[in-house]
Known about the structure:
Blueprint: E1 7-12, H1 16-28, E2 32-37, H2 41-51, E3 55-59, H3 67-77, E4 83-86, H4 91-100, E5 104-106, H5 112-123, E6 127-128, E7 133-134, H6 144-148
Parallel strand pairs: 1-2, 1-3, 3-4, 4-5
Antiparallel strand pairs: 6-7
Helix pairs in contact: 3-4
Amino acid sequence: MARSGRVRILMAVHQPILEAGIRLLIDEEDAFKVVGQAHRKDEVVRLARELVPAIILLRIPMPGLPDLEAVARLTTELSDVPLLLFDLPGKPAMLQALQIGAKGVLSTQATPQLLFKSIRHVHANRVWTGESARGNEALPGNSAHDRRSRVTSDEHPARVAGHRRS
């Protein structure tokens, strides 16, 4: 992807070390560009309107708001900008966030490659669950196939700790 066509990302991670690390990773990837960083909900809304990002990376919880309340407010106020969330506490919260309107969820334990893959899927208007991408018609966990499906070690390298891929 040409530099001028890079995916514009607004970050709302609100943890300095995590924010700096994610920004360094994203800035090294030619397909993406961090266009701003916010630390409170009002900053997210203001910057999203000013900078017109393609995606908002949002770490939950957000200071001053209960976990899913931030997601509900942001998806209402910024309905045209998909949210990719970090660190939701458990699968029930993940499913609820997706049902409220978030487009994806990702653990801060994910690899850089998984971060990039999730950004690409959310940018393509597909729901990202950290294990797979889905079209908007299905939420994760709703089918027997979802409960039985296995993920590869590429998607969850922690499952093969100590093994290095060549």
